[in-house]
Write a structure and sequence with these properties.
Radius of gyration: 18 Å
Strand content: 15-25%
Mean pLDDT: 86
Helix content: 25-40%
Bound molecules: calcium ion
Strand order of the largest sheet: 2-1-3-4-5
Length: about 230
């Protein structure tokens, strides 16, 4: 089996070396970059299974780099985990449409870090699918094999988590889904206890992309005190 390849962009050399060692011990192939520009060059010239980005980097910062990776068709689908300091930076990740799939707040334990990495690695890769699975609701069409979403034939670009969320909603049309149910099904059973706000944030991002008017959503409605309901 070919080793899964991870890019680690972090300017704290000791932390970078430590994380890289641990990932290699788990069987991953790891490339590291100590600044954003180098990371961007690596991300463009290689194909990775996961990119781990620190937010605070000298020069090009992690959030900008994350958006650049998302906007490049070669790397748009790669899972991204952001590393962040407490407080204001977390708000930046959840408040802006950063395109990250997950974030870890520093300081973090290695066990937590590796668990988060494994979750991203378990995402099924598109080329593995054999049957042509398509879900549709209203003018939305979701191709599970190619992991693409179309609205009246125009493609909508979704992040991995947004895609998984929409899949879950389309498979459970009209049902009210609790945040716990969504966390378990989209983020996984053994996912580290996660702020339920994560669900709200990803739903907000998804609404931006699939709703006619995101501030008055028609497809994904909030059921106060319970969760969310999808109606095509
Ligand atoms: Ca840093």
């Amino acid at each position: 089996m070919v080793a899964k390849k991870i890019l680690l962009v972090e300017d704290e050399e000791k932390l970078t070396a430590n994380l890289a060692d641990k990932l290699r011990a788990e069987g991953y192939e790891v490339l590291t970059a100590l600044d954003g520009e180098t990371g961007w060059g690596m991300a463009r010239s290689n194909s990775f299974d996961l990119i781990v980005l620190d937010i605070m980097l000298p020069g090009l910062d992690g959030l900008s780099l994350c958006r650049m990776i998302r906007n490049d068709s070669e790397s748009a689908d790669v899972p991204i985990i952001m590393l962040t300091a407490r407080g204001a930076e977390v708000d930046k990740i959840v408040g802006l449409e950063s395109g990250a799939d997950d974030y870890i707040v520093k300081p973090f334990g290695l066990g937590e870090f590796l668990a988060r990495v494994r979750v991203q690695m378990r995402r099924p890769s598109p080329e593995r699918g054999l049957k042509q699975d398509v879900l549709s609701a209203g003018d939305l069409r979701l191709d599970l094999t190619a992991r693409r979403v179309y609205r009246s034939d125009a493609e909508i670009k979704l992040s991995n988590k947004e895609f998984d969320l929409l899949t879950l909603f389309m498979r459970n049309e009209s049902a009210v889904l609790s945040r716990d149910f969504i966390l378990t099904n989209v983020w996984g059973h053994d996912y580290f206890p996660l702020d339920k706000r994560t669900v709200d944030v990803h739903i907000r991002w998804l609404r931006e992309k699939i709703e006619e008017n995101p501030s008055s959503p028609k497809r994904i409605s909030t059921v106060r005190g319970v969760g969310y309901r999808f109606e095509g």
